[in-house]
Amino acid sequence: ASYGPNPICKGCLSCSKDNGCIRCQHKLFFFLRREGMRQYGECLHSCPSGYYGLRTPDMNRCSRCRIENCDSCFSRDFCTKCKTGFYSHRGRCFRGCPPGFAALEELMECVEGCEVGQWSEWGTCSRNNKTCGFKWGLETRTRQIVKKPAKDTIQCPTIAESRRCKMAVRHCPGGKHRRRPAKTKDKKKKKNNLMERAQKQHSIFLATDKTSQ
């Protein structure tokens, strides 16, 4: 018999107009569907989203997945497919993969990521392969890849980084000190002083020459 839009008695061993299936045929799963205030039993070949098939000697039933954000599960505590936007990892669902694991977007799963070691100490401050002769240079530190990722498409974190540093030795031993170019104002001032001194010496020379005459 069929009551309403759903063939609620299909696959039933026993069925009622008000409650639908009460007992299912062998190998089918009993599912209690709720619609508003009403609920009725159905006999299904496979359980709907959010449920898994639990086989018992008495009657096979659809049991709800107890894992948060799970779409389908193997058992009440192991999810096989998470809801949209969540990654599957060891039977659980996550918004983002746990530390040490990377996300495979095409499968929405978390797999072992790239594992790197601790940073080394900062290296010697240098510039142009020299450790002197400049005020500022760069120092670098590195770390090793301890474990390669499970997939080649997963990138490893950076294994080298540099930062600006001040050199301990400004001038190289035995080398000539580099002079900074004089500023424009200093050059003009020096030039004016030389011109004044030249004019003064010229005036003295003219005065001495007239006296001698």
From TrEMBL:
Q: What is its main location?
A: secreted
Q: Which InterPro entries match?
A: Furin_repeat, Growth_fac_rcpt_cys_sf, R-spondin, Rspo_Fu-CRD_dom, TSP1_rpt, TSP1_rpt_sf, TSP1_spondin_dom
Q: Mind listing the GO molecular function terms for this protein?
A: heparin binding
Any one annotated GO CC term: extracellular region
Show the Gene3D superfamilies listed in the entry: Hormone Receptor, Insulin-like Growth Factor Receptor 1, Chain A, domain 2 (2.10.220.10), Thrombospondin type-1 (TSP1) repeat (2.20.100.10)
Extract the ranges annotated as region (Disordered): 172-213
SMART domains per UniProt: FU, TSP1
Q: Where is the composition biased (Basic residues)?
A: 172-192
Q: Where is the R-spondin Fu-CRD domain?
A: 9-110
> What is any one GO biological process for this UniProt entry?
Wnt signaling pathway
What are the subcellular locations of this protein? Secreted
Pfam families registered for this protein in UniProt: Furin-like_2, TSP1_spondin
Which family is this protein grouped under? Belongs to the R-spondin family.
Know the name of this protein?
A: R-spondin-2
**Taxonomic source organism:** Urocolius indicus
